[in-house]
Amino acid sequence: MKRMVSGIKPTGELTLGNYIGALRNFVKYQDDYELYVFIANLHCVTVYQEPKELRKNLKDAIGLYLACGLDPQKCTIFLQSDVYEHAQLGWLMTCMSYMGELNRMTQFKEKTQNAKDENITAGLFVYPPLMAADILLYDADYVPVGEDQKQHVELTRDLAQRFNNRYSETFVVPEPLVAKVGARIMSLSDPSKKMSKSEESNKGCIYLLEDINSAKKKIMGAVTDMCAHVNYDKINQPGVSNLLEIMSSLSGEPIDSIVTRYEGKGYGEFKKEVAEVVAKELTMIQNRYNEIMSSGQIEQILKEGAERAHRIAFRKLKKVQKKMGIDIF
Ligand code: AMP
Ligand code: TRP
């Protein structure tokens, strides 16, 4: 069975974008791959997090992972910081990375463009080599990510190849796996931007634990256009296309078929159905989330997950240390 690794960085509440772009795909993958999923808490603190809030977000994220259908019997779920090898190999990967290539990382550039120097941590800069370590520790064949993380997986490939060439064959060179539909869910209030928890206005982003009526209202208020026909055209009708992607990826109905059904109909009716589809999905997730959070099983699931992950990560790190000459016996 091919192996797959991915992580989520829950600095803030998880959104519908996270769900469609990442989480929901994991649930599908757990049947066909040996899947490792972790909560990237070490990545979270590359930007200051209020501890109480971070703790809550991490717990919620785990609850949501499980609520969305990840099954600890089928995959390995753990907290990144519980498996110490991530930070260790992260450092070694940092030492394999060049300033130039890290300087080219789009996400780093975006995050630091308007920030004050004192807010830009060194952690933010060396975040990609830590991510590479997360992946390479497990010899992952595939890394399911949203579009914005593809560049980091490409860096991971470069680092793996560099290490393999410099020392000897050690790492599997992973491939990013970006789902076609729903790979980039856009903001409901500004469809030129990604739906993101860091958005200024709250109107464009739906949270997985959001009140159902509030979520419906956001869909009904989504920015569309003057074309007045439901059509998939990302250039001229980005808002409507975004709603189509949301609906198609949640219901499984192909975009073409939705478009055909709405021929000659207005946006109001279309939005209503999108709102219903979103509401149904959120309700299901929230019910399961409440059950899981009150069941008290999370601690045990994470403990078992970390043990399983550690067994693999430990062997890999040892091998790397030996090859680099760090480990002397
Ligand atoms: P983030 O919340 O930005 O740390 O991202 C966590 C995962 O969700 C990554 O794989 C992202 O690419 C994915 N993701 C985040 N926002 C979106 C979005 N609006 N559309 C699709 N995928 C997303
Ligand atoms: N950087 C990813 C994000 O912001 C989270 C992440 C950390 C990750 N390590 C990873 C994703 C390893 C895939 C594989 O979303």
Sheet with the most strands: spatial strand order: 1-2-3
The proportion of residues in beta strands is 5-15%
Sheet/helix structural class: mainly alpha
CATH-derived topology of the largest domain: Rossmann fold
* Total number of strands: 5
Helix amount = 40-55%
Number of helices: 14
For this structure, what is the CATH class of the largest domain? Answer: Alpha Beta
- CATH level-two architecture of the largest domain: 3-Layer(aba) Sandwich
CATH superfamily of the largest domain: HUPs
Kindly give the count of domains. Answer: 2
From the alpha-carbon coordinates, what is the Rg to the nearest angstrom?
21 Å
What summary fits the major beta sheet? 3 strands, parallel
Secondary-structure element pattern, one letter each: EHEHHEHHHHHEHEHHHHH
Bound molecules: adenosine monophosphate, tryptophan
**Separation, N- and C-terminal Cα atoms:** 33 Å
Structure, explained:
The model has no long low-confidence stretch (mean pLDDT 94). Helices cover 55% and strands 7% of the residues. The chain is mainly alpha-helical and 329 residues long. The protein is built from 14 helices and five strands. Adenosine monophosphate binds next to helix 1.
